[in-house]
C-alpha cells in the first residue's frame, strides 16, 4: 500500500471514531426533518387546495345567489314599470273621459243658455208686440176721438208700421 493512501484511511478511521456517531445521528435527524418537512408541505398543499376549492364553491354559490337576486329584482322592476304604465294609461283614459263629459256638459249648458236667451228674446218680443199693439190701439182710439172718425184710415198704416218693427227686432235677436 501506499503511504498516502494509508494516511487517508487512517484519518478517515479517526474521523469515524471521533465524529462518526454524531454525523450519523445528524444525518438521521436531517433525513427525519426532511421527511417531516415534505409531509408537512404536502399537508399544507392539500389544505390550501381544499380551502381554495371551498372558496371557489362559496364564491360560485354567492355569484349564483346574486345573479338570481338581480334577475328577480329585474323582473320586479319590469313588473313595476308595467304596472305604472298601465296605471298611467288608465289615469289618462279616465281624465280624457272626464274632459269629454265636461265638454259635453259645457256644450249642453251653452245650448241651454242659448235656448233660454232665445226664449227670453222671444218672450221680450212677444211682450213688446203686445205693448205695441196696445199702444197702437190706444193711440188709434185717441186719434180717432180727436179726428172724429173711427180711426179706420189710420189702422192699416199702423199695422204696416208695426210689422216692419217686429221683423227688424226678430233679425236683431237672431244676430
Question: What does this entry look like structurally?
Answer:
It is a single chain. By secondary structure, this protein is an all-alpha fold. It has one domain (3-174). It has helices spanning 3-147, 154-174. The longest helix has 145 residues, at 3-147. The protein is rod-shaped, with a radius of gyration of 64 Å. It starts with a helix and ends with a helix. The mean pLDDT is 86.
SSE topology sketch:
Elements lengths: L2 H145 L6 H21 L1
Name the descriptors:
0% strand; 175 residues; mainly alpha
Please summarize what this structure is:
The chain is mainly α and 175 residues long.
User: Ranges with pLDDT <50 over ≥5 residues?
Assistant: none
Strand runs, count: 0
Q: How does the helix and strand content classify structurally?
A: mainly alpha
Number of helices: 2
User: Major sheet, described briefly?
Assistant: none
Work out the strand percent.
Answer: under 5%
Question: What number of structural domains do the residues give?
Answer: 1
Mean pLDDT: 86
SSE ordering: HH
Q: Cα distance, first to last residue? A: 159 Å
| Overall geometry | rod-shaped
**Rg, alpha carbons:** 64 Å
What level of helicity do the residues show? over 70%
